[in-house]
Each structure stands twice: as structure tokens, then as C-alpha cells.
Amino acid sequence: MWFTDVMEVPSLSARDLNNTFSDEGGDMLLALILVPAVLLNPIEDPYTFLDLDYDSIAAAASDAYMQEDYDAAIDSYLSFLERNATDVSALYNLACCYGLKGDEELATAFMLRSVRAGFEDLGWITWDPDFESVRNGILFSGAVDSITQAMEEREISLGSILHVPGRTMIPCRIMLPENFDPDVPHNLLIGLHGYGSNPEIFMGIWEAFDEPDFIYAIPQAPYPRFAGSTPGFSWIIRSEDDELASAIGEDSHQYICDVAELLQENYNISDTFLFGFSQGSGITFETGLLNPDLFDGLICFAGWLDTTIVSVNDIETAKELRVFIAHGIEDMVVEYEASAIAFEYLSSFGMDVEFHDFPSGHTVDHETLRQAHAWMRE
After folding, report:
1. pLDDT (tens digit, 9 = 90+) per residue, 93-145?
2. Which one of 12, 211, 229, 336 has the fewest beta carbons within 10 angstroms of its own beta carbon?
3. Per DSSP, what are the bridge partners of residue 88?
4. Residue 3 belongs to a domain
């Protein structure tokens, strides 16, 4: 299922080889030179493992996890790890699957492997609901204590950290609708991916829309997380320093506003919508409600509203902002109640808020996303 087809390359006559030196055939000859000789003959190929589509295997693992088929997810993650043994995300997610199955020994083993491979967010490990059934076990809790001590000792050996504001160029993926006309106004949808994800992964949502008629832009979050074959990023970094944590959040809000303003300057934009999933949804609530003049609507999937960041006065100022909230009723990562509470809270101020639920877990449901698309057009 995940094997790439290996095409047989026919033998070439002398005349054929001479023809390949033409302008039209030069690229073909170069391609043949670069093809391993073993592929030129219909013999058994010992290198078929190089043709495995590991992205598809990882996607199958993620899909199985979302469908709560943890045995299938485990099989796919193990297949992926056969050739990507130090992939942090796969190791950590495999640990989560064993945690959800209540297998403390294997959950602990793969959690430790993920840490050795580079996973450093101890706060996430101690909070992650996937480990709820094993968190208080002797093996798991002991491993967490050991990691905590090791990280503290390493920090001492490396010296203290001072966070210094800096300027860098961060990529933003942009998808234009089919038959795009720069002279015609288009809606702008800015997508904020979740924790540990990236714009390339979040761009896959584009396929869920029926004939998208808007500009879709996905800025990359500023803070790298999850080293491995698929890099991931976060909109914030955890800190016990309240002043630093506040500055980090404010910088992310400003960065997203800068993205919106730049796109509004470079494209013919009618309305601008901010759309986020999970951590990106929390940042969507904050950035949109704190900067209502820049946005016409917010679309928040599986997120939460932090009322310690967004004040009553902020919401009063943003009352004209439309909000679309959606959450899977089986979500075990971000509690369903988080979105329900946000809906009730914003509605109490007289804001135009819609709430949609769907029968699945921590994901962006495609049918609900199409409903959000229709909502954008209203």
C-alpha cells in the first residue's frame, strides 16, 4: 500500500541514445544516468525499502490515533520508526498510544526514547491526558522524576538563559483560489496550526473546502518543537517567569497581526478571518479579540479562551467581531467544555457566536470546516 511503483526502463538502441542528446532528450539521458543500474533490469530489487512512502505511514498512524484505533496506530508508528528511529514525534506519539492502552511499561519506554531523541517539553508530558492511566504508576512517575532531575542538572551545566528579542524572517505558505484574479476582492483566511505542527501539514486542510474562493495563508509559528523528520513549531514557549511568558504571547500576537497587515497590503482583500486549531485556536481567540480592527471573524477549532489574557474590556471593544467555534465531543487532548465555556462567555456579551460540535476527537472535522466556509460567505 505504501510502496512506490518502480517503473521498468526499456533498453535503448544506439539511435535512441543519439536522440537523447537533442534539447528535448537531454534531461531524459541525465535521468537515466542517475537511475541505479539495478532498476534498469527486471530483477529482484533489494532496495525497495527506499521507496516506502513514510509520510503516508505517519499519516495512517495519525488517522488511526484520531479514530481511537490504537493498535493500528501502534503498528503504523512502529513501521515508520523502522527507518526513522529517532523521529521525536513518532516516538512520543507511540508512547501516547501505549498510555491510552494502559500499558505503563511500553508508554514509559517510548516516552524515554522520545526524550533521548530530543523531546524536551516536560510540562507537556506531565499534563498530556494520553498518559492519564499510567501517570501515577511507579515506572512512569519514576521516569518523569529522573527526566526532571536530568534536565535540571543539564541546565546548571549549560548556564542560565536570557531571552533576547530578535528579528528573523519566518515563512508563510499562501494558496490562491483557482482562476485567481488580483483585481477582484477576495476573503483572506489566515490559518494558525497547532502545537508541534507546521504550515505544510496544515495546508492539507485546503483539500477539505468545496471550491475555495478565498486566499489561504499559513504562517509558521516562531518556536521550534519536536525535532525529527517532520519539524514542528509552537506559538509560545512555557516559562515560569510570568513577565517572559507575557512577552512571548504578545510577540506572537504582533507577529500574526504583521502577517495580516502585510497580506492586506499585497492582495485585494475584502474580509479577513483568523482560523486556528488547538493551540492555534487559543492564539486565534487572543489575537483576534485583542486586535478586532484587523479581523472580521474568528474560526476556532478545539481551542480555549484564556480570560487572564483577554479582559472584559477587550471583549467589549471586540463585540462586532463574528466568532465560529467548533469542537469534537470525543476530544481527549483539549476538553470539549473549553469551547463550550468560550461560547457561553462570549455570547454573554452579545457577540455574534456560533457553536458547532462533531462526533470525533482532536481534529478539524472537514464537514464542520465546510460549514465554517459557508459562514465566512454570510
Report:
1. 999 999 999 999 999 999 999 999 888 888 889 889 899 999 999 999 999 99
2. 211
3. none
4. no
Q: Which helix (H) or strand (E) holds 10?
A: none
C-alpha cell at 249: 504571547
C-alpha dist (Å) from residue 373 to 141, 166, 209, 325 = 44, 36, 7, 13
CA angle (143, 195, 256) in 5-degree steps? 145
CA angle (349 as vertex; 343, 352 as ends), nearest 5? 60
Structure confidence at residue 226 as a pLDDT band (50, 70, 90): low
**Residue 3 phi/psi, 5° resolution?**
-90, 140
* CATH number of the CATH domain containing 133: 1.25.40.10
Residue reference for cell 463574528: 322
The answer to whether 273 and 298 are in contact (CB under 8 A) is yes
Distance between CA 280 and CA 194 in Å, rounded? 5
Give the single-character DSSP code of 117: H
Distance between CA atoms of residues 221 and 328, nearest Å: 24
User: Would you put residue 129 in left (φ > 0), alpha (ψ -120 to 50) or beta?
Assistant: alpha
The 10s digit of each residue's pLDDT in 255-283 is 999 999 999 999 999 999 999 999 999 99
Q: Are 294 and 270 in contact (CB under 8 A)?
A: no
Q: Residues 347, 228: one domain?
A: yes
For residue 100, the SS3 value is helix
DSSP for 193-220? --TTB-HHHHGGGGGGSSS--SEEEEEP
Do 370 and 305 share a structural domain?
Answer: yes
d(CA 129, CA 213): 38
- The count of other CB atoms within 10 Å of the CB of residue 261 is 13
Do both 178 and 311 map to the same domain?
Answer: yes
What is the rounded end-to-end Cα distance, in angstroms, of the chain?
A: 42
Residue 9 lies in a domain: no
